[in-house]
Design a protein that fits this description.
It contains eight helices and six strands. It has about 230 residues and is α/β, with parallel strands linked by helices. The protein has a single domain, classed as 3-Layer(aba) Sandwich (Undecaprenyl pyrophosphate synthetase), CATH 3.40.1180. Strand 3, helix 5 and strand 4 form a beta-alpha-beta unit. The chain binds farnesyl diphosphate (FPP).
Length: about 230
């Protein structure tokens, strides 16, 4: 979609730790506020008519954090899925997952699987939770699936790689947003984001509100997307 509302937005929700630090609070308090911001943005995105929203909740690199912080973030995912089910049902929001599911703790796996199953028929916005997600890891897993399907390596095409990614039916993100003033994409949607418009904001994630999403979309609407071609 060139103009108008982007069909798919990916968000790198950064700055929870700094938000807490600035207030003399523990980092986990920042994640708790980050979860509230995520809920606000899911609601706003659904009202705006966005079709797919991918949230980078936990990366393959986030295991390097303390066991307490890892457990806390994964616990928030569980809390989010449970607490938001009514909202999902009312707004027909379908929950999906991106990332390596196999090594997640069994209780988190169950919560995610249940949410996916319970919302599978909803035809509103799709919220893709990237949990234990890494773009490089996703490509490695895609190539393993390709090899296991006994495909011939010399025939591999871009479409083949796309078709073995975690959610091949979901269109590539039109825009990737990152909060908290960091100008990198940190292994998020590496393949899918090849032509995404990047939007960086200095605002820390827990401070994000509906207006910030709208400002990002207004900026997106001014972009000239050429996909390597020239303007008609
Ligand atoms: C980055 O901030 C944030 C994370 C690694 C976790 C994001 C998780 C949530 C917002 C809660 C779960 C969300 C959902 C939708 C279930 P940071 O800790 O790297 O911040 P810093 O760079 O300031 O330290």
């Amino acid at each position: 979609m060139e103009k108008g509302i982007p069909a798919h937005i990916g968000i790198i929700m950064d700055g929870n730790g700094r938000w807490a630090q600035q207030r003399g609070l523990v980092r986990t308090q920042g994640h708790l506020e980050g979860l509230k911001a995520a809920k606000r943005i899911v609601k706003a995105a659904s009202v705006l008519g966005i079709k797919y929203l991918t949230l980078y909740a936990f990366s393959t690199e986030n295991w390097k954090r303390t066991a307490e912080e890892v457990g806390f973030i994964l616990g928030l995912v569980k809390q989010y899925l449970r607490a938001e089910f009514d909202f999902s049902r009312q707004n027909k929001i379908r929950v999906r997952h991106a990332g390596d599911f196999s090594v997640l703790p069994p209780d988190i796996q169950k919560e995610i699987s249940d949410s996916i199953a319970n919302t599978a028929d909803f035809d509103g916005m799709q919220v893709i939770l990237a949990i234990n997600y890494g773009g490089r890891d996703e490509i490695v897993r895609a190539l393993k699936k390709f090899a296991l399907a006994n495909q011939e390596a010399d025939k591999i095409s871009e479409n083949d790689i796309s078709s073995y990614l975690d959610n091949p039916d979901i269109p590539d993100p039109d825009m990737i947003i990152r909060s908290a003033g960091e100008y990198r994409t940190s292994n998020f949607l590496l393949w899918e984001g090849a032509y995404s418009e990047l939007y960086f904001s200095d605002k820390l994630w827990p401070d994000w509100d509906k207006e910030d999403l709208e400002t990002a979309i207004l900026d997106f609407q001014k972009r000239d997307r050429r996909y390597g071609g020239v303007k008609a």
